[in-house]
Design a protein that fits this description.
The chain is mainly alpha-helical. The chain has 6 helices and no strands. α3 crosses α5 and α3 packs antiparallel against α6. One of its GO terms (molecular function) is transcription corepressor activity.
């Protein structure tokens, strides 16, 4: 989806600072449109969280950041994931053509 934006001739006529601001400011809607256009589906699964005792017993003292885990970052709520799925289903129900998706991405 970002590739779509970068392939627009008018995008390259903007100063680099404006290009960066445009990408930072609108990546969310472009990402959502890309998911809808590519018909990306996903399932939600509950991630098991080990107990504190298990973490203490199994964690090696020499390990600084855990065993290859991603740094702590906020996880999406179930409501946010359901909202995303609802948005995608709304787009899919419209049965938009590639040209219509391109028009939406351009606005």
């Amino acid at each position: 989806t970002v590739a779509f934006l970068r392939n627009l001739p008018s995008f390259w006529q903007l100063p680099p600072q404006d290009q960066r601001q445009l990408l930072q400011g609108c990546w969310g809607p472009l990402f959502l449109l890309g998911l809808a256009q590519d018909a990306v589906t996903f399932e939600v699964a509950e991630a098991p969280v080990p107990s504190i005792l298990k973490k203490i017993l199994l964690e090696e003292p020499s390990s600084s950041g855990g065993s290859g885990q991603l740094p702590n970052r906020p996880q999406p709520s179930l409501a946010a994931v359901q909202w995303l799925q609802c948005c995608l289903e709304s787009f899919w129900s419209l049965e938009l053509s590639p040209k219509e998706y391109a028009c939406l991405k351009g606005t």
